[in-house]
Amino acid sequence: MKFGTKAIHAGVEPDPSTGAIMTPIYQTTTFVQAAPGDHKGYEYARSKNPTREALQKSFAALENGKHGLAFASGMAAIDAVIKLLNPGDEVISTNDLYGGSYRIFTKIFEKYGIKFHFVNMTDLDEVKATVNANTKLIWAETPTNPMMRVMDLDGLSEIAKASNILFAVDNTFATPYLQNPLDHGADIVMHSVTKYLAGHSDVIMGALMLNDDELHQQLAFIQNSSGAVPGPQDAFLVLRGIKTLHLRMERHSENGRKIAEYLKSHPKVESVYWPGFEGTEQYEIARKQMKDFGGMLSFILKKDSQDAAFEVLKKLHYFSLAESLGGVESLAGHPASMTHASIPKEERLKSGLKDSLIRLSVGVEDVEDLIGDLEQAIV
């Protein structure tokens, strides 16, 4: 089954009682049993809900996986993965990481005795040198947020498998349409469904996709026990959003390419971070494991100051200044003061995240209007 067909049909069947083509919203907390333990597969909606079940099947299919799990947010999905670990375990992650991931690692789980190493994950030798007997998880993000660095999934998978380490990938920026980490040896794929999978800036949700049955049982146990599950209305909205994922990602990628090239040639822009520029090692890795390069990019002005960045952000019209990304509308953000403010400045600077950096989530509007918006703002 091709991706567009999966996006529309996987996990979804006409309602058997009415023939409704859209999965019903089962807005119920509990399910009647004929006798104790005699039920139709559903007992209590925290544990299982038919709308969420359909969505989880769709999640699995999108990532070429066997299992999918839906959570109340992307952070809840990350929380579940780290709960697989024990005090004394160690995690290797990238030094160019989403601020919320860094925060939950360092502010929540470090106090329970889990140690985190933040390394330059584009350097496989540095990753190998960090592995030790206590390493139990490699957590990658590719492309990274917001520096758009690309991790070699095959290389990281080889390191993980050589030492029997779990390998998890945050695939939010790429989406399953552009990249499938399970096909490159990842054990777990995580998505902030809030972003591209839902696609319309109206749902908060997270997801995990995987193949291993035992690992799925462990994560499903955590999902049910911790209770951070989405409601059926949100599940319905994401099922609807997924049906156009392939169409949206084609437009996001097309617009992203044109805006990246425009900014690269702009006389007042110093640097543009986007994985699709040819002639770099990052490009070669991205071309190997991605179908296209997406609609996320960041840039720094030649006038390298936070005030200069703020001036541009204040002038933008079609690019709305807001947290989040991946919706049909274009968004602009200032990571140092917004999405990555929880990371100490000295740590941000180590990864190249300057206070002057602007991140763009390029939407599906007419690209000429978006370029015109940037043109009138960057003066």
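The above is record 1. Record 2 follows with the same two-line structure.
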Amino acid sequence: MKPRTGAPNRGETGTLYVCATPIGNLKDITLRALEVLRSVAAVAAEDTRRTRKLLAHYGIRVPVISCHEHNWRQAIPRIIALLQEGKSVALVSDAGMPGISDPGADVVAAVLRNGLQVRSVPGPSSVTAALAVSGLPASSFFFQGFLPRRRSARRARLEWLRQLGCTVVLYVSPHRFEEVMDDICRVMGEHVQAAWCREITKMHEEILRGTVGQLRDRVRSALVRGEITLVLGAAEPKVSEEELDPLQVAVAVEQVRASGCSPTRAAKQVAERLGIPRRIAYYSWLRHVAHQSQHEEE
């Protein structure tokens, strides 16, 4: 079905097309998206400069309405007025699918409250692109977006995410990636598997895989540009001291020690992974070693 043109529709209302645009490579746009962008009366854009560059690349001339996190309340009446006049509007974000960590969701909600039509024009998304190349389970995942800026709130959120038991996708700003990675290691443990995806589909695309501890150490103090999509594997669930099996804890410490760690370092890693005090992991290992020595003497 062809999209309605920008011309009035004889008493009919227009349609808001929620239109995905490339997340980096301008070639990653669907034929349907181009058809919609050419036909609408206006494009409501989160980043007008980026959208105009995209439109110019494909020779599309259409009015662009600024609609970002600071002015979306003022932009909505203009969008609704066009739709009520029978003219269609395309809603685009600065990259990817509108409504994902941007004001697009508020625009769609306002249009629906006014009884107007909304249709999706799917396409690129950094969330699904990162999941696809992460190598981590994607049959069940949780999209977090950006974590809170305040450290206490961020750690509380990470503690909640840890309990989900599934893959988690985060957006990380290059300005605070070190502190975010430190908090992830502290709350979820250094051994959680992860994929660090930066500048996906762009010239300087960078995808790193490993544990969060390894990724933190690898990118620490590096000059990072561009937002990062971070995919985290499921963290091991925390256990209470009542549910704890000292033998399993001791064996886990011994396994880490086999890689060359000191007992205290191994106990720390196991404790972070299980969410228990380090002293419990360390003394569980000490008792296990003592028991083994006694058994050998007998």
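The CA atoms of residues 241 and 276 lie 7 Å apart.
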